[in-house]
User: Fold this.
Amino acid sequence: ARAKIKAVQEKHLDRLLARPNVTAVDINYRTKGGEKTDQLCLVIWVRRKRPESGILAEEVLPREIDGVPVDVFEGEATLGEGFQWPNIAANRQDNSPESLAPESAAEDLLKPRPLDTLRGGDSLAPETSIEAGTLGYFVRKKNAVGVLSNCHVMGAVGDKLLSPAKKDGGTKDDYIGTVKETAVTTAVDCGYAPLRGRITEFKLTDGTSVTGTEAARVGTLIKFCGRTSGLVDRGTVQSVNWAGVIGGKQFRNQILISQPAQGGDSGSLLVNRDNNRAIGLIFADSATHGLANQIQDVLAALGVQIAI
Assistant:
């Protein structure tokens, strides 16, 4: 049933998203009286639900499409308050040799914070930004160790990163590395920055370490450590097929979680609560749900691996 609904979603996605009130198209369970049923269907997200009597006939959504039942959900996903998409190409990287090794020279110029105090879940932003997002976790690229977050949190290639962000009291001594690669596609919103020096301990702010990666599955128990929310150890994966428009950009095959993120949580690593394996990278939310990129897509886009 899911494969059939997925084919219908892909066939009609662009046409549905072109409707002025439609924000997303998902594969999920029908809701009746506020309770989920066991009927899998195509779920169309709209900015505002309105009775059929109050809208034009051509704006009424169908009750089924190609034999697949349709449910309607009121909601719209957004980036965190104050954030916008950087003015960059879809994929960008700095291929200079220093992108493959730690930038140790910076330590001679500053009195920097010890890198071993960094944690996944810490505050993060470019040194010129007045906003703050989340350092997701640590990744390896060839012989370098770096940090992972959203592109819309990290900014553009060449931006110097502070942790904590200036908004949270960071100064030039909190410089941790320079953005070397970013990717914003229909699948991911992510970026990578090699650290300016060595780090020997990889942990989240809850004191645990990520044990690996796995594909997100509906029903997976989740947790994440966010700059604003701290440890969130509740909620589940509700869908792995969310597709919609966020800030004017279309995304497909995203992870929908039952727990919304707060402003500043963008970039948080989404983790399976049972085994501490990474499953996604949080980048947006609605009032009732959070959204994350699939971790396999993120790592592939940047050519990195989770540091273990």
The longest helix spans residues 2-17.
